[in-house]
Write a structure and sequence with these properties.
alpha/beta; TIM Barrel; two-stranded antiparallel sheet; 4 helices; 12 strands; globular; binds zinc ion
Length: 204
């Protein structure tokens, strides 16, 4: 079974416009099967963890946080998403760091000394950034929305090839094993003006 998933969203618990329940409703409407809330650590409302537990949805909901991580080039963002036993760390939207690809590679290396990075995003607000979708960055590549409002939902996502055993843990485990593909709506990249194509059918 293929599960459609979103690993990067923001809610009104940090700088997003929609409440956690509204975010879950929107992704449900868009046909998603799982969703991670990843609000910013430095803007987090104290009730965040309680509020995301209260969300009622037909989706698998993951608790997560977008960490602000300092490095020699300034700071970058890393998503930490948790299931019961499994955790995934994703280096977020490198295009946002205003670094060259070479500098990004150095920066990911530096951050990986502090956090066990599993993957790197190849999207910026859901738009494909192909310059980071390269073998020289030796991590899984992930498409995600980084949505902050309704308009930002459903631009970039992953589709995971699951077996029969579907739990929060097996979903993260399957992603970490690379059995998924990145998908894009094909809207143009803001910074690079490159079209992502309707669906990228490569398996990462
Ligand atoms: Zn974000």
């Amino acid at each position: 079974m293929i599960l459609k998933g979103q690993l990067h969203t923001h809610t009104s618990m940090s700088d997003g416009k929609l409440t956690p329940q509204e975010v879950a409703n929107e992704y449900s409407r868009l046909g998603f099967h799982f969703l991670a809330f990843t609000d910013h650590d430095h803007l987090l409302r104290p009730s965040y963890w309680d509020e995301i537990q209260k969300v009622r949805s037909n989706l698998f909901i993951f608790s997560g946080i977008e960490l602000t991580v300092h490095c020699s080039k300034g700071y970058v963002h890393v998503n930490k998403i948790e299931a019961r036993d499994e955790i995934i760390h994703i280096f977020n939207h490198p295009a946002d760091c205003d670094l060259t690809v070479r500098e990004t590679i150095g920066c990911v290396k530096e951050v990986a000394e502090k956090y066990p990075i599993d993957a790197i995003e190849i999207t910026n607000h859901g738009f494909y950034t192909p310059q980071f979708d390269i073998l020289e960055i030796p991590y899984l590549k992930i498409a995600a929305d980084d949505s902050h409002n309704r308009m930002g939902c459903g631009r970039g996502w992953i589709e995971v090839e699951m077996g029969n055993d579907i739990t929060h843990d097996t979903i993260l485990k399957t992603i970490k094993s690379g059995k998924y593909r990145n998908c894009f709506t094909g809207k143009k990249s803001q910074k690079n003006n490159i079209t992502g194509g309707t669906q990228d059918l490569r398996f990462s």
